Structure formats: C-alpha cells, structure tokens
Amino acid sequence: RYRNETVEAEVYYKQALQLVPTNGQPYNQLAILASSRADTLGTVYFYCRSIAVKNQFPAASTNLNKTFSKACQSGNSSPPVEKIAKAEFIQMFIQFHGCIYLAQDLNVAKPLTEKAIPELKTLLESDDLPASDLIKLVTINLFLLYHIASLDDGDDYDSLGKDDHHDSWVVTLDFTMKMLQCFVERATHQDEAEVKNSEDSSLTSILPAIFIICQWLKANSPSIFKDDVVTDQPQLWLDFVNMLNSFAVDSGPEKS
Domain DNA/RNA-binding spans what residues (predicted)? Predict the structure, then answer.
C-alpha cells in the first residue's frame, strides 16, 4: 500500500493532521502503520484518536475492536511470569482496556489492575517508559472513560447492563487514579542530583502525562470530584501537593 515508504507516509499523515486536526482518517492510517511495526500501543492509541475527533473515521471503531480482541486473546494465552518487561506490561495494559471496551467479564479485567500497577511503578523507577509512551497510556485510558460515559449519555446499554456499566466506570477510573499515583510518587521521590540535571530527570517524561490527567479532571469538574474513586485518595492528593510544593521557585530573600 505504501510501497515500503512507511516513514514518508507517516510524515504526510502527520502533516495532514496539522492541517485538519479534526479529521480521523490520518489517525486511522497512522494506526495501520503502527500495526505494521507490531506496535500495539501505538496502534490502539491512534485508533482511539481517530474515533475521538469531531470527524471520526468510520472504520476506526471496527479496527479498534479487532485490535482489542486480538490483544485479549493473546493475553489469555500468555504464561504467568513473576517479573515482566515493558512489552509484557503494555500487553497487560491493552488487555485490561480491551476487556472493558469489548464489554467482557470484569472479573478478568480487575485482576489485571493489581498486576499492571506494580509493574508500572517498576518501569517508571527504571525510566523504561518515555514521555511518548506515557502519553499514549494515559490517552487510551481516558478514551475508555470517554467511551463508557458516551454509553451513559445515550442510555445505550446494548453491550453493558446498567450495573456492569457503572462497574466498568469505577474500575477504569480507579486505574486512572492509580496511574496518577504512580506518576506523582515517581515525581516526588527523585534524587536531588537527578532533579538538578533536568535533562535527565524523569520529570520530563512524567509531567506531560500528569498534565493530561489534570486537564481531564478539570474538564470534568466539578462532577468528577464528587466521585468516590477520585475523592477517596488521601495519599494521592497529599503526594500531589508535595509535588507541587517541590516545584516552588526560590525568589530569593524577601525585601524589607
């Protein structure tokens, strides 16, 4: 299709997005390119973007369903391991979101949270997830919340019963808050030498992801702050305040 000029094709599709950012087709094509590289995270991310824009690409929903279905099937066949690498974490992450998006058994999705979050912490501590990957993870997660909310707005419970719909929202939002907790903890527990060398600091990777979640919380306030999943996070918000305080700029001695 691209005559083996995938890099050039990617450049053109990104230029198309700059010209018309509300068009979903370039995102869909970028997802296809990511799929050709076996980049599942990028594939799901671009399909989500293709659906979430104003003029979504019609085939993107079908393509996302197929990608999630494939990821869930491969995840079920994977043998359990004590310690996983980045690729296995991403597979687990995609499987979790796929289970909920495809309205599968929540009893399958819930244990994945317990497995994925500790691994996310480990990967953050070793700086194995660049900013681009963290942005994709957060975007996919927030897209799933958007998807669940859209079912609620339209009272469309064909695939989800009302109880399962609520549980899906709670489980997904809980995953969001736990991700934010991981990001904030990593941002507030850095060595002083690491913080001083801002170019090497993991803050440069983590802060964009934190910013996106904060923007989502702001866009959905005040209702989102009435949700117990968000408010019942005392340690998260304490760490968040400590993180913000650590960014305080020293303005020098006060003038008399």
Answer: 9-249
Distance CA 99, CA 80 (A): 18
Buried b (16+ CB within 10 A) or exposed e, 177-189: bbbbbbbbbbbbe
Q: d(Cα 133, Cα 10) in Å, to the nearest integer?
A: 18
Domain that holds residue 18: 1-74
User: Alpha-carbon distance 110 to 76, whole Å?
Assistant: 14
Total number of domains in the chain:
2
Residues 61 and 123 in one domain: no
Q: Find out whether 91 and 75 touch, Cβ atoms under 8 Å.
A: yes
In whole angstroms, give the CA distance from residue 231 to residue 197: 34
Residue 157 lies in a domain: no
23: which strand partners?
A: 55
- What pTM was computed for the model? 0.88
Instruction: Give me the residues paired with residue 55 across strands.
Output: 23
